[in-house]
Amino acid sequence: MKSKISIDFENYALCFIPVPVYLISTIDENKICNIAPYGMVMPVSYNPLIISVGSAKNRDTYRNILQINEFVLNVPSVELLKKVNRTADPIPSSEDEFIYAQLTPIESEIVSPPRIEECNSHLECKTIWIKDISKICNNRVIITAEVVALSLDQNIFLKNLCKQKGLMKPLYYEKHSYFTIGGYVGNRRMR
After folding, report:
1. Which of 4, 41, 73, 149 is 20 to 30 Å apart from 105, CA to CA?
2. Is the pTM of this model over 0.85?
3. d(Cα 145, Cα 128) in Å, to the nearest integer?
């Protein structure tokens, strides 16, 4: 039998798998674009396709989703690591984050916020409900949404899921460090 040890909650990362990194694109009521990196994203159902996102209430992304009820989950690759980190920089909400992060907006198929051209795949989402969990987790909400459109770079559209995921080169994040399939690729300080 394997020997088990108890660990403190401050070492939670030792028990978790790194979370996938998504860039969430939103717009506000004045059509100003925002991009933010998120890791607290989880599929809830595959039929219909429903996802949940954990967010702090003080983020522009959350405020924009409250106003517009739409957003796009964009999946970046390891090549976008420096630009992903730029989207985490605090900039005024009146600035277009596409310009700041040097990313290209492209029109979405259904929702108002744009997709990010440099990302491999996109999940266009419409909010179903938002649950405030501040009583148990200070300043946090869970946003649940239906995915209403999917798009993927044509060059990685394969029927072989293993090869396709390798071509996507997705980013994973845990405790200020980034990983991809196969290992460590960098940290939060990389600019």
Report:
1. 41
2. yes
3. 5
The residues, any chain, with a CB within 8 Å of residue 33's CB and separated by 6 or more, are 25, 26, 27, 96, 97, 98, 105, 113, 114
User: Are residues 149 and 49 in contact, defined by beta-carbon separation less than 8 angstroms?
Assistant: no
Rounded CA-CA distance 71/172 in Å is: 21
- Domain count for the chain, please give it: 1
- 140: closest CA among 43, 51, 56? 56
Residue 178 lies in a domain: yes
Looking at residue 48, what DSSP letter applies?
Answer: T
Q: What is the pLDDT along the chain (191 residues), one digit of tens a residue?
A: 889 889 898 888 778 777 889 999 999 999 999 999 999 999 999 999 999 999 999 999 999 999 999 999 999 999 999 999 999 999 999 999 999 999 999 999 999 999 999 999 999 999 999 999 988 888 999 999 999 999 999 888 877 666 777 777 888 887 777 777 765 666 767 66
In-domain check, residue 2: no
Q: Is there a contact between 131 and 141 (Cβ–Cβ < 8 Å)? A: yes
Closest CA to 53 of 149, 127, 148, 144: 144
**CA 80 to chain centroid:** 13
Q: Report the CATH number at residue 152.
A: 2.30.110.10
16: in domain: yes
Q: Kindly state whether residue 29 falls inside one of the protein's structural domains.
A: yes
